[in-house]
Write a structure and sequence with these properties.
21 strands; 6-stranded antiparallel beta barrel; OB fold (Dihydrolipoamide Acetyltransferase, E2P); 4-stranded antiparallel sheet; 409 residues; 4 domains; conserved putative lor/sdh protein from methanococcus maripaludis s2 fold; alpha+beta; single chain; Elongation Factor Tu (Ef-tu), domain 3; rod-shaped
């Protein structure tokens, strides 16, 4: 009886010990077994693949008109401000004659003496005219008398001819005297005008005779006032700029290496700011000349200007302005029905590329080839199928066969 009890107790101890060993093994396996890695995933899908160039630029007016001073003058204080709307023919600037320079007392005295001298010359010329008139009258009487005497044969014909020539000479002398009188009169007027610059005039006392109004050449808005106060200006000095903000274009500077890839007519999307709808446009011109520009990193780059024609209506462009910054997305090529995988899933493998595909809860390395890629996605040529799930940002620690727990991006 005792032997049977001891055997049963021994069996129970062995059973309990075995169960304890199994439980400990289960605990150790659960503690040290590989845990699924939480990863971000995305699906491989068919869609539109676009190769684009993304750069920034600015808006500018298609036509800008610069109003300049046609002559040296005194600009009147402008009545318009930047942003004011103007119509073609509206007065946008007014010019007045320049004020004469100030003259000192000595110069004024000299000018007064010149006026007196000129008046005296006028009087002398007037006297010469009167003397010439008297001489002509006498020569005329002598010529008439000689003609009558010659007709009655009291004098020779030569005497008659001599008196006639004397009358003609007297007539020419009168004309010369009259011309001298006119010249003396003009000289006197010139002397008085020179003296007049030294005396206060109506224009200097506040009146503005001879104003010259400059008019707007087109309908538009005032973009810039080069002169915002009354001041003297020289001929050709810029006064203000006018343009139509409803007719604008965008200019985007791209790297010279990217310029040959851009075709005229290519689609462009422009972003003008946060929460603003994009503007659509097309490439109108690619400049044939490059220029040097220093990047934000201090690197000199060769850039080329690309002009974009906007498709937005004028009333929408009126909300924007000349020089506004835009972010441009220029489409180089586009293909529909392409098999796309996010660029974030690609991992370098030697000279090629691979992705990690989620299969049965594990990451499986898959070599892929693609036709083209951009910053967002790659156009897969071989190695993947539509609907498969790939791991994004797998990192250097990802291994083939590693358990993963997927979450969609």
């Amino acid at each position: 009886m005792n032997k049977s009890n001891n055997g049963a107790a021994k069996k129970r101890r062995w059973l309990i010990g075995g169960l304890a060993v199994v439980a400990l093994a289960a605990i150790l396996w659960a503690s040290y077994r590989p845990r699924p890695l939480d990863v971000e995933t995305a699906s491989v899908a068919e869609g539109r693949f676009e190769q684009v160039i993304e750069e920034d630029g600015q808006l500018r007016l298609q036509q800008r008109y610069l109003v300049t001073a046609p002559t040296a003058a005194q600009l009147q204080r402008p009545a318009i401000k930047v942003g004011d709307a103007v119509k073609a023919g509206d007065v946008v600037a007014v010019l007045a004659p320049n004020a004469p320079g100030m003259i000192d007392a000595r110069t004024r005295s000299v000018l007064q003496q010149r006026v007196g001298s000129a008046d005296a010359a006028v009087a002398a010329a007037r006297a010469n005219v009167q003397r010439a008139q008297a001489a002509l009258a006498q020569a005329t009487l002598e010529a008439e008398r000689s003609a009558q005497l010659a007709k009655d044969n009291f004098i020779a014909p030569s005497a008659r001819d001599q008196s006639r020539l004397a009358r003609e000479a007297a007539a020419q002398a009168l004309k010369a005297a009259q011309a001298e009188q006119a010249a003396a009169g003009h000289a006197a007027s010139e002397a008085r005008a020179a003296l007049g610059r030294a005396e206060p005039s109506g224009a200097a006392q506040g009146s503005t005779p001879g104003l010259w109004s400059l008019k707007s050449p087109v309908d538009g808005r005032v973009l810039k006032l080069h002169k915002d106060s009354s001041e003297p200006v020289q001929a050709g000095a810029p006064l203000l700029e006018i343009g139509d903000t409803g007719a604008m274009e965008a200019v985007i500077d791209v790297l010279s290496g990217d310029a040959p890839r851009i075709a005229v007519g290519a689609a462009v999307q422009l972003s003008t700011g946060r929460n603003q709808p994009p503007l659509a446009g097309t490439v109108a011109r690619v400049d044939p000349v490059a220029f040097t520009k220093t990047s934000a990193l201090g690197i000199e780059e060769q850039r080329v200007n690309v002009t974009v024609a906007l498709k937005a209506p004028p009333e929408e462009l009126q909300k924007l302005g000349d020089g506004f910054r835009v972010d441009a997305r220029i489409t180089i090529s586009a293909n529909d029905g392409a098999l796309l995988v996010p660029s974030a899933a690609l991992v370098r493998q030697g000279e090629g590329w691979q992705v990690f595909v989620v299969e049965g809860g594990k990451a499986r390395a898959r070599t892929v080839t693609f036709s083209d890629r951009n910053a967002d996605s790659a156009w897969v040529k071989d190695g993947l199928k539509a609907g498969e799930t790939v791991i994004l940002y797998p990192g250097s620690g990802m291994r083939d066969g590693q358990p993963v727990k997927s979450r969609k991006s």
